[in-house]
Write a structure and sequence with these properties.
Layout (H helix, E strand, L loop, with lengths): L4 E5 L3 H13 L3 E5 L2 H10 L4 E5 L7 H9 L9 E5 L4 H9 L4 E4 L4 H15 L10 E3 L2 E4 L4 E4 L2 E3 L3 H12 L5 E2 H8 L9 H18 L5 E4 L3 E4 L8
Parallel strand pairs: 1-2, 1-3, 3-4, 4-5
Antiparallel strand pairs: 6-7, 7-8, 8-9, 10-12, 11-12
Helix pairs in contact: 6-8
Length: about 240
């Protein structure tokens, strides 16, 4: 197995150098870019396993670049950690809405950064599927082997995290999962995420369901507790 390849995208050379030094010491192979345009050139020519992406970039900013990555079949499965000096919750939530796997604020804290990188890579790299058989619930079909989700025969574009959340609930349809249970199951206990992160990803899943089925009834909110996947899926809704 070769080294894990990490692409750093930040317009501040000092940040890039600090990140490169920290990651190299931990055995990662580092690529650096100061713009979105340059970053896509690197992505075109190299197999990248993780992207650390700053929001504030010249030209194509980090959020626009994230949109482009998630809409491109070639890059959409690359895990992305957003780097931001902004403290607004809106910015962090927007990054998650667009498909970021995690975010971390500046100034960067070394141990937290490395823990988040390891957690993201652990859950997105060569893991065994949760199920060996296709899960069929009415018009909803989850294939853990190909990591595809189909609704009414139409394949949906799910991020890694969205797939894991839906698969977790599909393992026990009808069971109410608390936000904390979901965070611990998907991100593990060494991450520092707020429970609101779950709400953002569930909202994205529901939106994708509604675009095909006309509603998002598959996932129910249990007030003040969490979420559950319905046990009954009427066809042709």
């Amino acid at each position: 197995m070769g080294k894990t390849r990490v692409l750093l995208v930040d317009d501040d050379p000092n940040v890039l150098n600090l990140l490169e030094s920290a990651l190299s010491k931990n055995g990662y192979l580092v690529f650096k870019s100061t713009s979105g345009e340059e970053a896509f050139q690197i992505l075109d020519c190299n197999e990248i396993h993780l992207l650390l992406l700053d929001i504030m970039l010249p030209g194509i900013d980090g959020l626009d670049m994230l949109r482009m990555i998630r809409n491109n079949p070639r890059y959409k499965h690359i895990p992305v950690i957003m780097l931001t000096s902004r403290t607004s919750e809106v910015d962090n939530v927007l990054g998650l809405e667009l498909g970021a796997d995690d975010y971390i604020g500046k100034p960067l804290r070394y141990h937290e950064l490395m823990a988040r990188i390891k957690a993201v890579l652990r859950r997105t790299t060569h893991q065994a599927p949760m199920y060996s058989k296709i899960i069929s619930l009415g018009d909803l079909e989850i294939d853990p082997n190909s990591r595809t989700i189909r609704l009414k025969g139409q394949e949906l574009n799910f991020s890694y995290t969205e797939f894991e959340l839906l698969s977790l609930m599909a393992k026990q349809p009808g069971k109410v999962f608390t936000r904390e249970e979901m965070l611990n199951a998907i991100w593990s206990t060494d991450c520092y995420l707020e429970s609101r992160t779950i709400d953002v990803h569930i909202r994205r899943i529901r939106k994708k369901f509604s675009e095909v089925a006309g509603n998002s009834f598959f996932i129910e909110t249990v007030r003040n507790v969490g979420y559950r996947l319905k046990t009954y899926f009427p066809e042709n809704v």
